[in-house]
Amino acid sequence: MKTGKVSETVFKRSILKYAGKQHENILKRMNVGSDCAVFSFENNAVTMSVSNSFLETPEELVIRLINKYAAENAALKGAVINILLPPETEEAFLKDFTDRAAKALKEAGAGIASINAEVSPNVKVSRVIITGIGEKGAPERSKVRAGDDVIITKWIALEATEKIAHIKEAELNQKFPAKYIYDAKNFDKYLSVVPEAATAVKSDVTAMHCISEGGVFGSLWEFAESEGVGLSIDLKKIPVKQETIEIFNYYDLNPYLALSGGSMIITARDGNALTFKLKEQGINAVCVGKVTDSKDRVVISEDFTRFLEPAKEDEMYKILERIPEFVNKKGE
């Protein structure tokens, strides 16, 4: 496609038909010559954004957005998509992306309000930002306080393990049994946190936070910083699958610092009761520590204490920087 804003023909053929048709809260959709969409909500509006940091598929980006809303006890209603493309991009790529994103949003009960797509010679790899618009749920949760239990759902680094298993499948199949890598490739079935969020909001949950880029250590810091609390976490209790341990050891990566979509940090007055309810729903959950009134945010093991700090570069970059599609993507 040519540099600059996509042509009106491409806009109508590959973008416009997906915008504003899937949800009744979208009163006016974007159109040729008008980038504005109008929404109507009776309750509090919530906006959140995600971007494709790790070569995510349209479906994975939508799941990440839905997870953010689930963690806030909010309902996603619509989305605004901004796409930057390199000049060599074929229109078929754009059409496939918008089609798949529209289907994923429709399945979530949401619609596309508007899409802006531009082609630039300064862009080396396609870049997508999806901003969601939705409604905050009720009632408000109780405030996080010292003594609350800290729960982690499912297992950490599931998303990173699944991506590495796909990227390095041939190499890993020479090291591990094929069934082992096949199972790791299918960890994407765990990436939605909607089920645990739906169960948690019916309990005495005080906060929920999605674990994502930067891994569980980075997300624990983010959570504690946003709530203004301290944390004391038992390293041995943090749930991690054996496939993750083996694959991460093979590439000398740290699973506690790796992309962990599908896992949540939840705090509750009675963590044992909540983990029991989650396990009844078939969702793995473990109480890993406590909220404290200290300024310290620590992970404790038998032979060391690690002070948590803001997330640094995710371990996934060490893998992605070895593949051509990711070259020059960071910093765009």
CATH topology annotation of the largest domain: Phosphoribosyl-aminoimidazole Synthetase, Chain A, domain 2
The value of Rg in angstroms is: 21 Å
CATH class of the largest domain: Alpha Beta
The largest β sheet comes out as: 7 strands, mixed
Give the tally of structural domains: 2
Mean pLDDT: 87
- Judged by helices, strands and strand pairing, the structural class is alpha+beta
Strand content: 25-35%
For the biggest β-sheet, the strand order reads 9-11-8-12-10-13-14
Q: CATH H level of the largest domain: which superfamily?
A: PurM-like C-terminal domain
- How many beta-strand runs? 14
**Poorly predicted spans:** 327-332
List the secondary-structure elements in sequence, H or E. EHEEEHEHEEEHHHHEHEHEHEEEH
Approximately how much helix is present in the residues?
Answer: 25-40%
Q: Count of helices?
A: 11
N- to C-terminal distance = 20 Å
Looking at the structure, what is the overall shape?
globular
Report the CATH architecture of the largest domain.
Answer: Alpha-Beta Complex
